[in-house]
From TrEMBL:
GO terms for biological process: coenzyme A biosynthetic process. It comes from Tribonema minus. GO terms for molecular function: dephospho-CoA kinase activity. InterPro entries: Cyt_trans-like, Rossmann-like_a/b/a_fold. This is Cytidyltransferase-like domain-containing protein. Residues 120-253 form the Cytidyltransferase-like domain. It comes from the Eukaryota. PANTHER family: BIFUNCTIONAL COENZYME A SYNTHASE-RELATED, DEPHOSPHO-COA KINASE-RELATED.
């Protein structure tokens, strides 16, 4: 049971990340526990619930489709509408190409992947644990003989943020980032610069090899690679640190989603 609890905790975090990447933060996800109510606790038994509309699975495509066919045949016999399939494997394949990988899964390599020129970016206001996680991940991806470039969002780009008057100026934020990097990995060369667009140096300078992003900013990394392709630059390896979105899984986040959804519906009426 202890292992199951750990698995469920991690699974909900990963499902939240997947929902965020698909812009489906209000998706009602439920992990059913094994028990007598589901005649052995299989996914196919759980999927006979009238509330189910989507079945999420990590099975390979062929196995998942066969399972879905069996589920829908049984749902039809019960007078229920067919369910659709959301394959977590397929989501990963669609959202990330071969140039993208999760740092938390890098333990499979005998030697973790490192690069000569690495980039990351952000606002880095009031340097908190999320920032520190990203910067530490980026520093770990950079060879000691290489250089880490950190883009810090320009003040002019932050004026529309809520309580923007409380955000430190770029000079203070740059100093905080540089000091943190010096502390966690002495000897690593770094370049901390102001950026006045969402892309920064890796979109315009060919020498970069990798970019480190959190899970909610993967699309931005792909956009940078598109811009690099237009300039005939080599694509960046996209290193992702996972479950950053899970930290935002709270009632206020969902209330914001509901409010935005209601506003959008009103605008279309």
């Amino acid at each position: 049971m202890g292992r199951m609890r750990h698995f469920v905790s991690d699974l909900y975090a990963q499902l939240w990340d997947s929902a965020c990447l698909q812009d489906k933060r209000l998706l009602d996800v439920r992990v059913h526990l094994p028990g007598e109510g589901f005649k052995g606790g299989t996914m196919e038994e759980a999927a006979l619930s009238p509330q189910v509309s989507i079945v999420m699975t990590e099975r390979h495509e062929g196995d998942a489709q066969q399972s879905l066919q069996r589920i829908n045949a049984r749902r039809a016999a019960c007078g229920l509408a067919a369910a659709s399939l959301l394959s977590l494997r397929q989501v990963a394949e669609q959202a990330y190409d071969d140039a993208c990988y999760y740092l938390e899964e890098d333990y499979g390599h005998e030697e973790p992947l490192t690069f000569n020129s690495v980039a990351c970016g952000g606002t880095f206001d009031n340097l908190h644990s999320g920032h520190k996680k990203l910067l530490t991940a980026a520093a770990s991806c950079c060879k000691l003989s290489g250089i880490l470039t950190v883009g810090v969002t320009a003040d002019a780009m932050l004026t529309s943020k809520k309580l923007s008057h409380l955000i430190d100026g770029s000079a203070a934020r740059i100093a905080a980032v540089a000091s943190f990097l010096d502390d966690i990995r002495p000897g690593l060369r770094h370049r901390v610069v102001v950026i006045d667009d969402p892309f920064g140096p890796p979109a315009y300078e060919p020498e970069f090899e990798a970019i480190v992003v959190s899970s909610e900013t993967i699309k931005g990394a792909h956009k940078i690679n598109s811009m690099r392709a237009e300039r005939a630059f080599k694509p960046l390896k996209v290193a992702v640190t996972r479950r950053t979105e899970a930290a935002s899984l709270c009632s206020s986040t969902l209330r914001n989603c509901i409010a935005a959804q209601q506003q959008s519906q009103q605008q279309h009426q």
